[in-house]
Specification:
With about 220 residues, this protein is α+β, with helices and mostly antiparallel strands. The chain is built from four helices and eight strands; from the N terminus they run αααββββαββββ. The protein has an eight-stranded antiparallel β-sheet, with helices on one face. α1 (about 5-35) packs antiparallel against α2 (about 40-70). The protein starts with a helix and ends with a strand.
Amino acid sequence: MNSHELIEGACLLFAVLFLIMLFCFLIINIVSIYKKRKKEQKFRMNIIFIVIILFLLSLNFGSIYWTQFNQEEPNGFTAFQAMEEVESIIKDNSSIKYLVQVRSGEGFEEGYSQNWIFEFKHQTISINYNGTYNISDYESHFPVDHEITNWTIDSDEAFRTMEDKHLRKHLLYPHDPEMVLSYNSNIKAPVWQNSYWVPYGIDYYHVNAQTGEIYDDR
């Protein structure tokens, strides 16, 4: 259990204890009201008021529990996470250099993928979520001056940026199940690209991997 899970568990425990204390207060208040034989209307209003508070608090804590403990784990890893593994693979191999493209492979979903492909100038590394990888010789057509450097926007963040803008323009049109990171000579920076099917054809979105700025059809 990690520290995040411990914090969530402590918050849930606090919420449960708070509800128990509130319930005890309800019982004590009812008994006190009954013993003092206050007017029936005031007694009823107090009961309704406390029950409403309990109901609203239960909804609130219930939603917190549902959000924190029922989120599905991502199905795969992000490009940054994959890159960390790639860096450990190539650290002792000086011939693998000049990263010119990164693209998602099988099982891509919302910025996560079961497989990422890193294309260098003379080699390609395909790395899987389970840690297995394959290195193959490949002569890239990208020039060396299109090397991808200083990228700070991960694939999941870029995907959310594209998805937000796409959904504001169109609804219920799926995206291309692939994301690609490469150098864009117009923007002069590494850029994430994804495409969406729309009524008039395909919408392309590009997210600057250094600044997070989004562009349409460039």
